[in-house]
Amino acid sequence: MLPTAARRSLAGLIPPKIATPSAVSSGSTSARTASVIEFYSKLPKGPKPASERPGGLRGRYFEGKNASGAPLLATIFILFGIGYTIDYNMHLKHHKNGHH
């Protein structure tokens, strides 16, 4: 994972109001405040560059403007349909010789 992507993913973990005016004005917490400011200054700003965006099926269907769960639901229904068809045909083979 790229360092900027790691920083971007960590941005939501630390609340932005950690450096309150009272914490900034007190002398004892200046080192802690400096480390928070240093962390936030390294975070990338703005949208993710096109070079870091995922491509392929994930980028096309699950991220971006046309993000949707429809391909996932379609895959589930198709697999269910295939399984049902196989089960039904096996059941017909079972009844072929008059069992039951």
From TrEMBL:
MF terms (GO), sorted A to Z: proton-transporting ATP synthase activity, rotational mechanism
The species this protein was found in: Tremella fuciformis
Entries under PANTHER family matching the protein: ATP SYNTHASE SUBUNIT F, MITOCHONDRIAL (PTHR28161)
Protein name in UniProt: F1F0-ATPsyn F
Record-linked InterPro entries: ATP_synth_F0_fsu_mt_fun (IPR019727)
Keyword Membrane carried by entry: yes
Residues spanning the membrane: 67-86
Keywords: Membrane, Transmembrane, Transmembrane helix
Top-level taxon in the UniProt lineage: Eukaryota
